[in-house]
């Protein structure tokens, strides 16, 4: 089969994977604490082994584009003031720890609230954990949260937010609802002093809406070009078969 078919098909699939990632990012531009996903690609020659060896120069024109992995961009998103005492934004490489039926999970989404029992929970109902791994229950009163995560009510210390870090490139996988789970047996470490929190603020998604829309249009057009090229290649193949038959 014409190697151009493999090259175009793999390129089209890569463009489709990128289109899905960009569309997901744009759809979550207003999701607090959202971290953008970025597909990573590599090239493999048609006759090269699948173990990732460099393809011979003669095969580079017919190389296949392969989706190697999808990574998360954990860069800091912009912080916006809300004035809500239970909104908390993280500045730095830290995460809040929350309890779920699947175990402890981690999030940058600090839009907290109180449930009917006075427990500090996320907007999806997961209980926020203190630095001892316990649920945080707050009495009625004026809530203040220091930049180190210390929570006081009417001036009395109640609990301290559990802030953890996984380093500059966290080995975390998304589970939905802005939650992340550790991958490969990764364990969290207490966040360092450079990780601070800001009460009455939220961290917006690290996705630029305008740039995302421009990228979405660009990638969509690129995918259309791949499909058009496939159609043209099919026409050439059909014409060749017809002409050879006449000879």
Topology:
Elements: H1 3-27, E1 37-44, E2 64-72, E3 79-81, E4 88-91, E5 94-100, E6 103-107, E7 113-114, E8 120-121, E9 127-128, E10 143-145, E11 150-153, E12 156-160, E13 163-165, E14 172-176, E15 179-182, E16 189-190, E17 196-199, E18 201-203, H2 209-246
Antiparallel strand pairs: 1-2, 3-18, 4-17, 5-6, 5-9, 5-13, 6-15, 7-8, 10-11, 11-12, 13-16, 14-15
Architecture overview:
- The chain is of the alpha+beta class and 247 residues long.
- Strands 5, 6, 9, 13, 14, 15 and 16 form a 7-stranded antiparallel beta sheet that branches.
- It folds into 2 domains: 113 residues, no CATH class; 125 residues, no CATH class.
Main attributes?
seven-stranded antiparallel beta sheet, 247 residues, single chain, elongated
Number of strands: 18
- The end-to-end span amounts to 21 Å
Mean pLDDT over the full residue set: 86
Overall domain count: 2
User: In sequence order, what are the helices and strands, one letter per element?
Assistant: HEEEEEEEEEEEEEEEEEEH
Percent helix among the residues?
25-40%
Work out the radius of gyration: 25 Å
Largest sheet: 7 strands, antiparallel
Dominant shape: elongated
Estimated share of beta-strand residues: 25-35%
| Count of runs of 4 or more consecutive helical residues | 2
Q: Tell me the structural class.
A: alpha+beta
Low-confidence runs (pLDDT<50, min 5 residues)?
55-61
Can I get a quick summary?
This protein is α+β, with helices and mostly antiparallel strands and 247 residues long. The chain has two helices and 18 strands.
């Amino acid at each position: 089969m014409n190697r151009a078919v493999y090259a175009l098909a793999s390129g089209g699939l890569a463009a489709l994977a990128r289109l899905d990632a960009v569309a997901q990012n744009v759809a979550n531009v207003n999701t607090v604490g959202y971290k953008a996903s970025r597909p990573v690609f590599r090239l493999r020659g048609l006759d090269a082994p699948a173990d990732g060896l460099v393809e011979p120069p003669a095969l580079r024109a017919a190389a296949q584009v392969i989706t190697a992995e999808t990574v998360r961009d954990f860069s800091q998103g912009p912080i916006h003031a809300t004035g809500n005492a239970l909104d908390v934004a993280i500045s730095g490489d830290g995460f809040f720890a929350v309890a779920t039926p699947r175990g402890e999970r981690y999030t940058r989404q600090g839009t907290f609230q109180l449930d009917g029992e006075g427990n500090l929970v996320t907007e999806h109902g997961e209980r926020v954990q203190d630095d001892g791994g316990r649920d945080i229950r707050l009495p009625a009163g004026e809530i203040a949260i220091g930049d180190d995560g210390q929570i006081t009510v009417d001036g009395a210390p109640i609990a301290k937010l559990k802030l953890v870090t996984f380093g500059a490139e966290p080995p975390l996988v998304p589970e939905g609802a802005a939650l992340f789970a550790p991958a490969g047996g990764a364990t969290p470490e207490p966040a360092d002093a450079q990780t601070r929190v800001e009460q009455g603020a939220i961290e917006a998604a690290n996705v630029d809406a305008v740039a995302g829309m421009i990228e979405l249009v660009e990638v969509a057009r690129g995918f259309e070009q791949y499909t058009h090229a496939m159609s043209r290649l099919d026409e050439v193949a059909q014409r060749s078969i017809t002409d050879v038959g006449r000879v």
